[in-house]
Amino acid sequence: MSILTPDKTTTLGGVNVKEYLLTGHNPNHIDMPSVSMAGKIIGVTVHNTDWITVARGTTPAEQYTRATVNGNMKDVRVHYYVDNTCAWQNLPRNLSGWHAADGSGNGNRRTIAIECIMSSAHNSTDKKSEDNCAKLAAALLKQYGLGINHLYTHTHWLNVRDGKRGTVDQLNTMHNSYKMCPAYILPHWAEFKKKVQSYLNAGTSTISAPSTKQLYRVRKSWADTKSQLGAYSSLENAKKACKVGYSVFDSNGKAVYTNSRSGKFAKGQAVHIGSNVPLFANETTTTPASRLTAGTYYIYDGVPCKLGRYRITTTAANCGRTPVGKYVTGYVSWDNFK
After folding, report:
1. Same-domain status, 176 and 76
2. Same domain? 133 vs 184
3. Burial of 254 (0-12, 13-18, 19+ CB in 10 A)
4. CA 248, CA 241: separation in Å to the nearest integer?
5. 132-168: per-residue pLDDT in tens?
6. 251 with 215: CB under 8 angstroms?
7. What is the spatial distance between Cα 277 and Cα 103, in angstroms, rounded to a whole number?
8. Hey, which residues does 218 pair with through a beta bridge?
9. Sign of the Cα pseudo-torsion (175, 97, 244, 310, in order)
10. Domains in the chain: how many in total?
11. By Cβ atoms counted within 10 A, which residue in 18, 48, 56, 267 is the most buried?
């Protein structure tokens, strides 16, 4: 018997999937992604995480889900954990994750993340985990009308982040000094791809039935369905995803929140920033210099920079002071301000 109670259980690609979305279960108020991927998904990213011993009646995938809820997974947020028995879904598929270490790059912002739980690639348990991962990946690719060349490794996005060039598979397997992931699958990536392709060919995808729970939709207007950025079970997450000029609508079409913020921030204004937000060294680079810890920061001079960024600093007293290099912490995209 599970320790957590899933909101629903479905089958996807022949894998038993237990849905327990962090957007609806966040008692510890852990930081959550807020960027919608609706209409933007370009593929599936495969990771490996280590096998763990768990109590009777649960599975490693559930244990990792509980660890995330408890804040023990730090800033990692993935869509699925999969083991030899089942998968647990942690994020809605239209919500970006934190898994690719590429900041606002396509890995985090445009791919669905699967963490495959293994201890090696050799024993029967690990092989079953890998097989479930392949089935799940194939089903997701098929659902979004994507082919095998939209199957990525974590290392792919690290190589893209670092400015390396090559084909999809060259970037999938090219050495990266930061991390080689999925560690257990990567040494036989070509064989794993063949397995995913075989499930794609077999057409084993089973689409989950839509939820009957209350959903909050982010749109320009209720009638403008094409403008929808996403649908959320959590009103707070819907608000976070709501861009300027958009509103959050309940299931009856009633606007419950409208974002009229201008996107302009004044010198000295305090802004709250969550953890893992990318901090850039200038207004145009795409590679983060570091990542911020959650807290309150201050708008350095109120001058909008390129790519929607503002310069921030750590105290109100630093605002506008020179030399700039001494007092400016870095550049942050304004859509990360709360």
Report:
1. yes
2. yes
3. exposed
4. 9
5. 999 999 999 999 999 999 999 999 999 999 999 999 9
6. yes
7. 7
8. 230, 248
9. negative
10. 3
11. 48
Residue 115's Cα: distance from chain center in Å? Answer: 12
Report the mean per-residue pLDDT for the chain: 89
Tokens 């994507």 sit at which residue? 146
Same domain, 280 and 328: yes
Location of structure tokens 């992931």: 181
**Cβ neighbours of residue 104 under 8 Å, at least 6 residues apart?**
35, 278, 333
Confidence (pLDDT) at 1: 46
Backbone angles phi, psi at 133, to 5 degrees: -65, -45
Q: Which helix (H) or strand (E) holds 237?
A: helix 235-241
Percent of the chain surpassing pLDDT 90: 67
Together in a domain, 197 and 48: yes
Asked whether residue 310 falls in the same domain as residue 254, the answer is no
Same domain, 98 and 176: yes
Dihedral (C-alpha) 143, 16, 191, 97: value to the nearest 10 degrees?
Answer: 60
Contact call for residues 107 and 80 (beta carbons, < 8 A):
no
My answer on whether 162 and 224 are in the same domain is: no
Q: Do residues 126 and 103 share a domain?
A: yes
Residue 42 contacts residue 252 (beta carbons within 8 Å): no
Mention every residue, 6+ apart, whose C-beta is less than 8 A from residue 133: 46, 82, 114, 116, 185
Locate 23 and state its tokens: 């957007």
- The letter for the amino acid at 145 is G
